[in-house]
Amino acid sequence: MYLQPQKCRDVRPKAPAAQAAQAQGIPRDRGAQIHPSVAICAQSGGRGPSVALAPSEKRGNIMLDIKITRTAAPKAKPEDESKLGFGKIFTDHMFVMNYTAGQGWHDARIVPYAPFQLDPATAVLHYAQEIFEGMKAYRTADGTIQLFRPDCNAKRMQDSADRLCIPPIPEDDYIQAVKALVDVERDWVPHTDGASLYIRPFVFATDVSLGVHASKEYIFCIICSPSGAYYAEGINPVRIYVEDDYIRAAPGLTGFTKCGGNYAASIKAGELAEEQGYAQVLWLDGVEKKYVEEVGSMNIMFKIDGKVYTAATVGTVLPGVTRRSCIELLKDWGYEVIEGKLAIADVMAAARAGKLEEVFGTGTAAVVSPVKELVWKGEHAYIGDGKIGPVTQKLYDTMTGMQWGRLPDTKGWIVPVEKVY
Question: N or C: which end of the chain has fewer CB within 10 A?
Answer without folding.
Answer: N
